[in-house]
Amino acid sequence: MNGRKMATIQQLYFAILLLLLGAISNFHPQFIAAKPVTKSKLNSRILQDSIIKQINENPMAGWEAAMNPRFSNYTVSQFMHLLGVKPTPAKGFAEFSYFNSSEIFEVAN
């Protein structure tokens, strides 16, 4: 190959690389809260002693809950932000219908 064709191929590869990097950098998974969360719930602590107690008193739980000091002071709002949850859209999810799977399938006893 001559030098000119080689330069064109390198430019093409570089352009493709830039397009791929641009596509990857713009891909951010976004999560939307399915139901609006009340302000009192948003300000409550994410880890609560009552939940830990409830899990630990359940013999069928299969695991033991404990308070993680890293997250012990987080509120629900802070944790939702940490997870990347977006606010519910103004229109909400009115166009979606929710149903229980037992309404569709009869479960055999």
UniProtKB/TrEMBL annotation:
Give yes or no: UniProt keyword Disulfide bond: yes
Write out the entry's keywords from A to Z. Disulfide bond, Hydrolase, Protease, Signal, Thiol protease
Swiss-Prot/TrEMBL GO biological process terms:
proteolysis
Q: Where is the Peptidase C1A propeptide domain?
A: 47-89
| Molecular-function GO term, any one | cysteine-type endopeptidase activity
Q: Does the keyword Disulfide bond apply?
A: yes
Protein name (Swiss-Prot/TrEMBL): Cathepsin B
What is the source species? Prunus yedoensis var. nudiflora
Its lineage reads: Eukaryota, Viridiplantae, Streptophyta, Embryophyta, Tracheophyta
